[in-house]
Design goal:
Structural class: mainly alpha
Order of helices and strands: HHHHHHHH
Largest sheet: none
Low-confidence stretches: none
Number of helices: 8
Shape: rod-shaped
Oligomer: single chain
C-alpha cells in the first residue's frame, strides 16, 4: 500500500516536470522503485532475522533440556541395572575380592586344583579369579560363600566327598 502511494506521488511530480525532465523519468522511476523495494525487503528481512534468532535460542534451550534428560535416563538405567542384578540373588551381600579369595585358599591349606574341585571349576579358573582377570558368576559366589564357612577339616572333608 505504501509503495503505490509513493508511486502516485512520484507520478504527480513527473507530470509537473518539463519536457527535458521527461527523458529522465525512466531512470528516476527505476531508481525510486528500487529504493522502495529495498526498503520493504529490509523491513521483511529484519522480522525474519528476529524470528531466526528466536528459533536458535529455543533450539539451544531444547538441546540443554535433552542433555539433562539423557543424564537422568543414564543414571536411572544405571540404578535399574544394579537393582535388577541384585534382585535374583537371595543374598545380595555376596562380594568377591581376588586377594580375599587367594588368602581363603591359603588359610584352608588347599592347592588351586583342590579349591577348583570343591567349587566344581577348573584349576585355571581359580588362578584367573586370584589374579583378578575374571570374576565368579553368582552361582559360583554362593559356593565360595559356603566354602568360607568351612575350616581346614571341613574343607578336607568336602574335598574327600568330591573325589
Amino acid at each position: 500500500m505504501a509503495f503505490t502511494t509513493h508511486l502516485l506521488d512520484f507520478f504527480i511530480v513527473c507530470t509537473k516536470a518539463t519536457r527535458t525532465d521527461m527523458a529522465n523519468i525512466t531512470s528516476l522511476l527505476k531508481s525510486e522503485i528500487t529504493r522502495l523495494a529495498r526498503k520493504e525487503i529490509r523491513a521483511e528481512v529484519e522480522s525474519l532475522k528476529k524470528a531466526a534468532a528466536q528459533y536458535r535460542s529455543e533450539i539451544a534451550k531444547l538441546k540443554r533440556e535433552l542433555t539433562a534428560q539423557e543424564k537422568k535416563i543414564f543414571s536411572l538405567g544405571k540404578s535399574a541395572t544394579t537393582a535388577v542384578s541384585e534382585t535374583p540373588n537371595d543374598n545380595p551381600k555376596l562380594r568377591f575380592r581376588a586377594a580375599g579369595f587367594a588368602s581363603l585358599r591359603k588359610k584352608l591349606g588347599l592347592s588351586a586344583a583342590d579349591m577348583g574341585k570343591i567349587l566344581d571349576v577348573s584349576l585355571q579358573t581359580v588362578y584367573h579369579w586370584e589374579k583378578g582377570t575374571s570374576k565368579p558368576r553368582a552361582s559360583q559366589l554362593e559356593r565360595i560363600a559356603e566354602v568360607r564357612k568351612l575350616g581346614r577339616r571341613g574343607a578336607a572333608a568336602k574335598l574327600a566327598e568330591t573325589e
